[in-house]
Amino acid sequence: MDKDISESLKIIRYNVEEAKAKYRKPEDIVRIMAVTKTVPYGRVNEAVKEGITLLGENRVQEYLEKKDFYDKNAEINFIGHLQSNKIKYIIDSVTMIHSVDSEKLASEIDRLAAKAGRQMDILLEINIGGEDSKSGVSPEAAEELLYKTMEMKNIKVRGLMTIPPIGESEKAFDRMRMLFDDLKAKDPDMDTLSMGMSADYALGVKYGSNIVRIGSGIFGSRK
Ligand SMILES: *Cc1c(COP(=O)(O)O)cnc(C)c1O
User: For the chain, which ranges sit under pLDDT 50?
Assistant: First the structure.
């Protein structure tokens, strides 16, 4: 079912502000990302007209089909699983990649960013629940990946991203916050925690998220 985008954003903004007022500092930034998978560009642009300034893309092919039609007032982040041979299609037009989970992928982004004459912001994706079905680096291996990526000149590690195990968001987000604080002690430039989706974004805000990634909560359930 398609949702009334204006109405759903009102509710989401209210809930984000409420969680922020309760658990966060007034100066903390929490951005609402609209996740666009399966959503026609016309509806994505409606969300931008309603003030959304950040779009999240999962699939390279789908993104390439829609990107020229997107309202240019929103910036684009890539949040889906990314194959090394597809980086070249997105390196010029996205401002951050949330799904970096290996040294190999990071070094290929670094190489192509250099070629494109830019620096790319990245997040390390953490498989916080240790699930076989999910991508992401294990919490134990995150520090080593951080050190490796910190040495790469054309990428900048801005923080961490996760998708928690179903039904365990609160425990997972609490662990993520601790891991973030640990790693930030090693790389003080880290300023971004990307966690919380339609079902658990208020919990994400409670535990320190700076970007909540919301798809169905804005646009309605996916077909
Ligand atoms: C689909 C997706 C989301 C949004 O999921 P909803 O439950 O529809 O809000 C967020 N993050 C990632 C990585 C996704 O693939």
Answer: none
